[in-house]
Amino acid sequence: MLRASCNESSLGIVSSITYRQIHPSETAAVSSLAREVFDNFVTPHYQTDGVAEFHRYASVEALSQRHECGHITLVAEYSGELVGMLHLREPCHVSMLFVQSSRQRSGIGRGLLTAAGALAGDPDCEFTVNSSPNAVSAYERLGFRVTGSEQCVHGIRFVPMQRLSHNDRNT
Question: What is the pTM (predicted TM-score) of this model?
Fold first, then answer.
């Protein structure tokens, strides 16, 4: 099992975020986190069919089925509370990445990607993601670049992106 901790300091307060693979008993909490953040930030930009498709994809049943097929979910935990999640298919495709609203822009997304790279055996993994249009700038801050134009499949609007290797990001 992957376990990594990260200390963050803010105004002299030190807290610890733990990054690890999901426990099967946490699937409902992870589903709830993903759907809550999606509903707050993405739903306003989607049609009804896209919202329904995402809710189906992020459901407990669908997550559990994908785990049985080899997909992996990592979580970020703070003081026993799940504050972020990353769902991987293949070795390096991010199919969901959500951080609790109050914890966004605090390094948790970056920490989840680092943990996923370690799990994939490649800390510099060139991750791909189909970003919701409103999250493109967040992924750009994480080192991703747009690789194609906006698309819509089953009501899900997305922009294909890829994170460049560390060497390519520095050139």
Answer: 0.88
Could you give phi then psi for residue 26, rounded to 5 degrees?
Answer: -100, 0
Alpha carbon distances (Å) from 139 to 10, 78, 105, 127, 142: 23, 22, 11, 11, 5
CA 85 to chain centre: 5
| Residue 153, C-beta contacts closer than 8 angstroms, at least 6 positions apart | none
Q: Is residue 147 within 8 Å of residue 136, measured between CB atoms?
A: no
Query: What is the end-to-end Cα distance of the chain in Å, rounded?
Result: 35
**Joined tokens for residue 155:** 């009501």
Sole residue written with tokens 């669908």: 62
- Give per-residue pLDDT as tens, 82-98: 999 999 998 899 999 99
Beta strands in the chain (DSSP E): 3-10, 13-21, 72-78, 81-89, 93-99, 128-131, 144-146, 151-153, 156-163
Q: Which of 10, 33, 116 is nearest to 142 (CA)?
A: 116
Give the tens place of pLDDT for each residue, 66-125: 999 999 999 999 999 999 999 999 889 999 999 999 999 999 999 999 999 999 888 888
